[in-house]
């Protein structure tokens, strides 16, 4: 099998890239020291996280010069995400740190006045942005395909230096900012998006790079009408996973977090079994899910950390599911079964190495937020959120919020931040506050949702998974008031969750709130609707979506 060299110089999910390369029939050799770089005919530098951190790691480990030489010698080079950013002269993210300077220009942070930052989701890499529709595809890029991006800094477009210096490029638009999605010149190909996380469209790009096929005839000429620029509406399938009463690992689903059958044999009924996690994840991928989230809802508290069943689930899922995978449940500092202390960062590392792209933190985030307010809104630097986002980047840390409505007659009767609601409480209360809970909703805390999301944003969380206990499993639609309220409190993206019962509910949450993504569980698990049906409906409503490519 042909070989490509991979430089794993910084933390991140490298496993999916290896899986994608192997699926394409190539083997991976690891670059373990600068002396290995000259052995590579083809070299890939992936990267996530902080530009300064990545460049400093590369330079301190002595990689900068060997990489420059590899490129100058005309050998094939691919940079992914921060691996592409490294080619530029520098970045606003770390003005004091120099890039490789192969491409003129500086990376700039997206403006967050009118949109969420980081930019997370599926967007274009359009080589026909000037309106020309070509029959040739540059490294497999199609103007009507969508690719998975996750970043806060980008190379703004237009960049006069690109064309002047002979670079070909593909662009994307986020809000009203246009940026470089991919660059190509001679032996160099680099993408701001993650091809290994971009489904079949991404695998096509990776294959073209590995096989050195710079220009390929497109199988079908894309129609200009299909070439809509911009971030698509992200639809996420969520799998709550736990062991059932017989010890099997199953996908389950609660009604307002109660996952036991109402008519079961044992007290409280048996745990609902809706299927096998890996099979279901693959099914949703093939239906067009833009991401898959696993929530390990019982944390497997008595299991040695290295044997956590979710690790194996991620390993197997990432072999055939090439969209981002999030894992939540039990991510906190803990003591292993043999008494060893193990940090949340260590647990997250195990998950990233097994194929996760993001970790989701629930209960521990609430505790961290309470301490943040107790300290007078100052950071400790020691929370799981801070440690993981520092090591892997903000985009890798999701905070899963499990709020519940508490009705009050007026804002004056509570110190918590309240919302005026169109759906009064049982005694006609006109306001409510959203109480944060821990331990899967079993314990309410004296902390409201605004306090939680603002605190975790300050700590470096990159995204909020916004559940709602009142709505979970009700099939009655999302809590639009909650979603609008939370979106108004923070700049990081929000995933709306809980209550989706049909495709109309998903369209409604995108039309009536500025949510960044919508998550569904029960309606998919019970096979009432497929992800494709939801996306077809969104498309019919004029909302931009990514369709699954065969
Ligand atoms: O606290 O860090 O160990 O994380 C535990 C994680 O497990 C949290 O993310 C918490 O939300 C989740 N969790 C704990 N118990 C339950 C439960 O259901 N008993 N599941 C649970 C939460 C909610 C959503 C669900 C949506 C959509 N599940 O993920 O998928 O509400 O459902 P729907 O579309 O069917 O309405 P930690």
TrEMBL record:
<keyword id="KW-0511">Multifunctional enzyme</keyword>
<comment type="function">
    <text>IGPS catalyzes the conversion of PRFAR and glutamine to IGP, AICAR and glutamate. The glutaminase domain produces the ammonia necessary for the cyclase domain to produce IGP and AICAR from PRFAR. The ammonia is channeled to the active site of the cyclase domain.</text>
</comment>
<keyword id="KW-0028">Amino-acid biosynthesis</keyword>
<dbReference type="InterPro" id="IPR014640">
    <property type="entry name" value="IGPS_HisHF"/>
</dbReference>
<comment type="similarity">
    <text>In the C-terminal section; belongs to the HisA/HisF family.</text>
</comment>
<dbReference type="Pfam" id="PF00977">
    <property type="entry name" value="His_biosynth"/>
</dbReference>
<feature type="domain" description="Glutamine amidotransferase">
    <location>
        <begin position="6"/>
        <end position="208"/>
    </location>
</feature>
<feature type="region of interest" description="PRFAR binding">
    <location>
        <begin position="472"/>
        <end position="473"/>
    </location>
</feature>
<dbReference type="InterPro" id="IPR029062">
    <property type="entry name" value="Class_I_gatase-like"/>
</dbReference>
<dbReference type="GO" id="GO:0000107">
    <property type="term" value="F:imidazoleglycerol-phosphate synthase activity"/>
</dbReference>
<keyword id="KW-0456">Lyase</keyword>
<dbReference type="InterPro" id="IPR011060">
    <property type="entry name" value="RibuloseP-bd_barrel"/>
</dbReference>
<keyword id="KW-0368">Histidine biosynthesis</keyword>
<dbReference type="InterPro" id="IPR004651">
    <property type="entry name" value="HisF"/>
</dbReference>
<dbReference type="InterPro" id="IPR006062">
    <property type="entry name" value="His_biosynth"/>
</dbReference>
<feature type="region of interest" description="PRFAR binding">
    <location>
        <begin position="521"/>
        <end position="522"/>
    </location>
</feature>
<dbReference type="InterPro" id="IPR017926">
    <property type="entry name" value="GATASE"/>
</dbReference>
<feature type="region of interest" description="PRFAR binding">
    <location>
        <begin position="498"/>
        <end position="499"/>
    </location>
</feature>
<dbReference type="Pfam" id="PF00117">
    <property type="entry name" value="GATase"/>
</dbReference>
<dbReference type="InterPro" id="IPR050064">
    <property type="entry name" value="IGPS_HisA/HisF"/>
</dbReference>
<dbReference type="GO" id="GO:0004359">
    <property type="term" value="F:glutaminase activity"/>
</dbReference>
<feature type="active site" description="For GATase activity">
    <location>
        <position position="194"/>
    </location>
</feature>
<dbReference type="GO" id="GO:0016829">
    <property type="term" value="F:lyase activity"/>
</dbReference>
<comment type="pathway">
    <text>Amino-acid biosynthesis; L-histidine biosynthesis; L-histidine from 5-phospho-alpha-D-ribose 1-diphosphate: step 5/9.</text>
</comment>
<feature type="region of interest" description="PRFAR binding">
    <location>
        <begin position="400"/>
        <end position="402"/>
    </location>
</feature>
<dbReference type="GO" id="GO:0000105">
    <property type="term" value="P:L-histidine biosynthetic process"/>
</dbReference>
<feature type="binding site" description="covalent">
    <location>
        <position position="81"/>
    </location>
    <ligand>
        <name>L-glutamine</name>
    </ligand>
</feature>
<comment type="similarity">
    <text>Belongs to the HisA/HisF family.</text>
</comment>
<feature type="active site" description="For GATase activity">
    <location>
        <position position="196"/>
    </location>
</feature>
<dbReference type="InterPro" id="IPR013785">
    <property type="entry name" value="Aldolase_TIM"/>
</dbReference>
<dbReference type="InterPro" id="IPR010139">
    <property type="entry name" value="Imidazole-glycPsynth_HisH"/>
</dbReference>
<feature type="active site">
    <location>
        <position position="240"/>
    </location>
</feature>
<feature type="region of interest" description="PRFAR binding">
    <location>
        <begin position="362"/>
        <end position="363"/>
    </location>
</feature>
<feature type="active site">
    <location>
        <position position="402"/>
    </location>
</feature>
<feature type="active site" description="For GATase activity">
    <location>
        <position position="81"/>
    </location>
</feature>
<feature type="binding site">
    <location>
        <position position="467"/>
    </location>
    <ligand>
        <name>substrate</name>
    </ligand>
</feature>
<protein>
    <recommendedName>
        <fullName>Imidazole glycerol phosphate synthase hisHF</fullName>
        <ecNumber>3.5.1.2</ecNumber>
    </recommendedName>
</protein>
<feature type="binding site">
    <location>
        <position position="330"/>
    </location>
    <ligand>
        <name>substrate</name>
    </ligand>
</feature>
<keyword id="KW-0315">Glutamine amidotransferase</keyword>
<keyword id="KW-0378">Hydrolase</keyword>
